[in-house]
Fold this protein.
Amino acid sequence: MQHLRRPAVAGTFYPSDPGELRAMVQGFLEAANSGEAPPKAIIAPHAGYIYSGPIAGSAYARLRLGRSRIRRVVLLGPSHRVAFHGLALSSADGFATPLGVVPVDRCGEIVELPFVHTFDPAHAQEHSLEVQLPFLQEILESFSLVPIVVGEAEPGEVAAALDRLWGGEETAVVVSSDLSHYQSYPTAKRLDQAASAAIEALHPEDLGPESACGCLPVRGLLEAARARGLKVEILDVRNSGDTAGDKDRVVGYGAYAFA
């Protein structure tokens, strides 16, 4: 019998009904510019879909161009509920969503790294990875998943894991992160513009926890991208005050493509 990681936020962060979920994701994708070529990596937000879905759609519309060639997705996100050191893998055979099951790649390339551990509690209730899966299921034909929750880790450790998992055009990297949290609308705009400038310039040293909740995996991706000479395109930067919330205390979201 398969050991599955079951959805923790279906029905809250996104619809639990498959038809409703698929229609919502397709709507976000259709509203976005698809570009001309699939990126190697993207950063996409992970809030409730009514808030961050339009911004995430901007990133996934680009990745959809690799629909037939991407066969593995390395997905990294921050830990919101469990404190731990290093990078956490899952023992699950697959990650389930209302759209089906995504098989897990055992990622043998990184299991011997001293900061990488199989640690299921980090995955059980974590939404940062889960909310990306319906987008991936909708845009890709068939793929396996390398799910990594990032705890207290150095950017160089994240970059070292990515280096081993980088692969070729069959592998895409997705980093899940929101930007500023619970600021006034003007403050959020300023912080998110600064974070976007740091991401675009591939300057991980200019990002901190106030810049992005996923600053650790983002900083690791920036190090890996800089080492490979990748360029960053800013696709969309908005906040909850622009999408579905009020402007008193907002959360920032950004979508970025690396090629």
Remarks:
- The mean pLDDT is 97.
- The domain at 4-258 is CATH 3.40.830.10 (Protocatechuate 4,5-dioxygenase; Chain B).
- DSSP finds nine helices and twelve strands in the chain.
- The first strand starts at residue 4 and ends at 5.
